[in-house]
């Protein structure tokens, strides 16, 4: 009996060694054969529309020349799938006309798409479309597999023209699992019937090498997370029980069955930066409460490309950006990123942080959208360790709406240490209380959540979005009399062009109109005729020289009636009059009428213009609104001074 048992143990050990050797050999052979396929970016032509591509998310390479207007684009930021993919990439600013790689993500359709002019591409408006897409930089997400070949909705795909092979979209198959070495304990676990001793047969090498022991697939992390957010994500078939990894369900081949991805609340389209206090004095517990408020804001705001976008900057000794506006495109991802923020420590240099945001944060490269107001919410524990007034003034003049949340201010015996008394009122956009929150205790910070969200989304009250360059109706009144001459008239038009280039032009920003006059008057174009800077500049170039007498008074009356009568109520009215001589008619009464109607008038005289007449026409004080130039060729030198005076006057308005 003892002999049989010993023989069995020897056979078992021998069998284990054989399996061990063959298993290692099999693994080595298999590892040589299995190589991860290299991802190749598919190339498409400029005329390929997103709706023709079935894949919900993909990376493609666009050729050069997609700025051509024949490649139609519909929408702004979020595009209808009827648009050219590459044309939309140029319009959005992700690519220029030289082409390159982009990441395209399909999203739900909209009830309307607004056209706009951007980066040399005029997109069109569309009332409704079943599917949309957004264009991002080609930075693949970790763990996401992008197709090397796209799936098109028709058999004759445009990709064939670009030399691309098309095939059905499917997830990469899971490689066949290899033979795993059997452990000694597994073999010894076999029940041996001592009553009927049997010599175990020696396994053949071939049998061991062909045996496949499948590893249990790891459970995805997503199933272990608690879903606290209302936004939805794409569903993977590999996470469903019983799903065949080699077969793609029909619903994954159709973009219509994807779970909807939020595009954001269009009623709260803002670009928001949170400046959070990371100074050492705040402590870990209060820093955590601060992050909880941020996470609450991220959840309350419906983050998305058609709605609010949010980034976070932490300040201490020096500010640092944790993530910018385009890093996270939904509330779920944003909240996750906020939870990972760690405290930096240091002083509480708020002024330095505001300057940093003004210079660096709201840039096109960081996702800033010209159509969305810029908002900064500054959180301060106690008081700043530097001055904020000058940095905040520059931020306001750049169009940034500054909100302040101050928590646990200085006690009476601490006020001697405050660097800048009343710092919050010196910083905020307006001092009427709308932009300020003061919280007595950190434990009451959560009460500011709802009123803060409501205020930052009230875009009609974000007064600092209006700057000297984006909130005016500018009417040029141009002398076309015989004394000017053809050559000098073109110089005057170049002067008008140089001034116009300084402003932000659109139907909602600054608008421009022009009148030419001699004895008579002619409306060259009105405020509502052109809504983009290139169109305005081209219209100025097309103005033809008229020639005749000089009736400046009649020209002012004509401009008031034909231009400024159609100005929008919320616009500053600026009249810029250029003349080279004394008027044949009276200018006093028309000039007074312009002043009474709130039209700010700048009078520029050249050569033979009468200085006293310019001062009558100009708004008070005349020294800031009238200019005399001895020669037409010197007009260009006055452009910076005129712009500076316009902005100084605008920024001197009371902040209440």
Please outline the helices and strands.
Blueprint: H1 2-33, E1 57-62, E2 75-76, E3 78-80, H2 85-92, E4 100-108, E5 117-118, E6 121-122, E7 131-137, H3 184-188, H4 205-210, E8 271-277, H5 283-300, E9 309-315, E10 320-323, H6 331-339, H7 350-361, E11 374-381, H8 389-397, E12 400-407, H9 423-427, E13 436-439, H10 449-456, E14 472-479, H11 486-501, E15 511-517, E16 521-525, H12 533-541, H13 552-562, E17 572-579, H14 588-596, E18 599-606, H15 611-617, H16 622-625, E19 626-629, H17 639-651
Parallel strand pairs: 8-9, 8-11, 11-12, 12-13, 14-15, 14-17, 17-18, 18-19
Antiparallel strand pairs: 1-4, 2-3, 3-7, 4-7, 5-6, 9-10, 15-16
Characteristics of this structure?
656 residues, alpha/beta, Rossmann fold, disordered N terminus
Q: Determine and state the CATH class of the largest domain.
A: Alpha Beta
Output mean pLDDT: 81
Helix content bin: 25-40%
Q: How many domains comprise the coordinates?
A: 3
Name the beta content range. 15-25%
Please state how the strands of the largest beta sheet are arranged side by side. 10-9-8-11-12-13
Please give the radius of gyration in angstroms.
Answer: 35 Å
Structural classification: alpha/beta
**Largest sheet, described in full?**
6 strands, mixed
Please report the total strand number as a whole number: 19
The appropriate CATH architecture of the largest domain is 3-Layer(aba) Sandwich
Give the distance, in angstroms, between the N- and C-terminal Cα atoms: 103 Å
| CATH fold annotation of the largest domain | Rossmann fold
The residue ranges in which pLDDT falls below 50 over 5 or more consecutive positions are: 1-6, 24-33, 155-260
Q: CATH homologous superfamily of the largest domain?
A: von Willebrand factor, type A domain
Outline type: flat
- Number of helical segments with 4 or more residues: 17
Keywords: Disulfide bond, Extracellular matrix, Glycoprotein, Neurogenesis, Repeat, Secreted, Signal
Signal peptide: 1-26
Domain LCCL: 40-133
Protein name: Vitrin
